[in-house]
Write a structure and sequence with these properties.
Blueprint lengths: L1 H21 L5 H33 L5 H7 L1 H22 L5 H33 L4 H4 L16 H25 L4 H18 L5 H50 L7 H14 L3 H38 L2
Protein name: NEQ160
Keywords: Membrane, Transmembrane, Transmembrane helix
Length: 323
């Protein structure tokens, strides 16, 4: 029942967004509304999934590390959030039949901020949970590709900026490749990194009493948002670009392989045929412009995020939290 209600709300919102974009305006209010809506949904889902996994895992294995349980919670939330992600992307792809480049880019911006809300929910709720338990696994967290090695993270310098920028661009490249081969399912990589990043940060923050630990986490989050928002919008732009390329080139390639008997046709692929047909009918010239614009947008956002992170966020956090 709740899932059906959520789907209807999203569907009605997409219709309203479509109407706005058709008139040549960007749906700013609706974008903020959906961002907040998806943020709270993913935030609450992550906490609920943690509670379920906590009692289930502790029943079998007492005193399990909190960060491991938080990562296991992804088993519950990933399928739900992937459904939302897939609906947003299908809506974007469907519009390619009739949209011009400007309309497609406006829709892409709307989808990017929607996905950002889905990412920030698990990130902030995971940090809150791990702060309450104050036990995490930093080694596990370092498998995240979101942050570089942080031994010298608070070194404010041009070399550190170049290190962060190079790392983030390489992450974007990896995410692009994963999205090409996995399609919208690659979003689980970002959800995993949301939890792993929260684990890494909570381990970095000073170990104090619970009230101060929670305050430090909230303070760190608020101070980090100015660089995290453009940075992760940049990652999501590469993710969205990879998903588009996946439908535009990779899926038709698989169709050719199936027609020639090199791959077995699956029921899952049959469900994608309509989306593939939509993309194939899109003008090739516009397709090239869209790919170029999304690539440039992703690079610019990542560069802006790295500048703010190294020269603004890092010195403020170091001064206030005395790290």
């Amino acid at each position: 029942m709740l899932v059906r209600i959520a789907e209807e709300i999203l569907e009605n919102t997409l219709i309203r967004v479509e109407d706005k974009i058709r008139t040549g305006t960007f749906p700013t209010f609706l974008t903020i509304q959906v961002f907040v809506y998806l943020f709270f949904i993913s935030f609450i889902l992550t906490i609920a999934a943690f509670v379920i996994m906590y009692y289930l895992v502790n029943f079998l294995i007492p005193n399990v590390n909190a960060s491991l349980i938080t990562l296991l919670s992804l088993v519950v939330i990933v399928p739900i959030l992937t459904i939302v992600t897939a609906r947003l992307i299908v809506w974007l792809l469907e519009g390619f039949r009739v949209d011009n480049l400007s309309q497609s880019l406006r829709k892409s911006f709307f989808v990017l901020f929607s996905l950002l809300g889905l990412f920030l929910g698990p990130f902030i709720s995971s940090g809150y949970i791990l702060t309450l338990f104050q036990n995490s696994t930093p080694v596990l967290a370092q498998t995240s590709f979101v942050l570089p090695a942080i031994a010298q993270y608070f070194s404010i310098s041009i070399p550190m900026f170049l290190k962060v920028l190079t790392h983030n661009l390489s992450v974007a490249g990896v995410l692009l490749l994963l999205a090409i081969f996995l399609g919208e399912d690659a979003f689980f990589i970002l959800l995993y990194n949301a939890v792993a990043l929260a684990t890494l940060i909570t381990d970095l923050l000073p170990k104090t009493d619970l009230a101060h630990a929670i305050a430090n986490w909230l303070l760190f989050t608020i101070m980090s948002l100015p660089h995290m928002i453009p940075e992760f919008l940049g990652f999501l732009a590469f993710y969205l670009l990879g998903v588009y390329i996946s439908f535009r080139y990779w899926e038709p390639l698989k169709e050719w392989l199936k027609e020639n008997g090199l791959l077995l046709r699956s029921e899952v692929y049959k469900e994608l045929e309509e989306e593939i047909d939509i993309i194939e009918r899109w003008q090739k010239k516009m397709s090239g412009y869209y790919v170029l614009m999304m690539f440039i947008l992703g690079v610019i956002l990542i560069i802006v995020g790295a500048i703010i992170e190294v020269f603004v966020t890092a010195p403020i956090i170091r001064a206030i939290l005395k790290i």
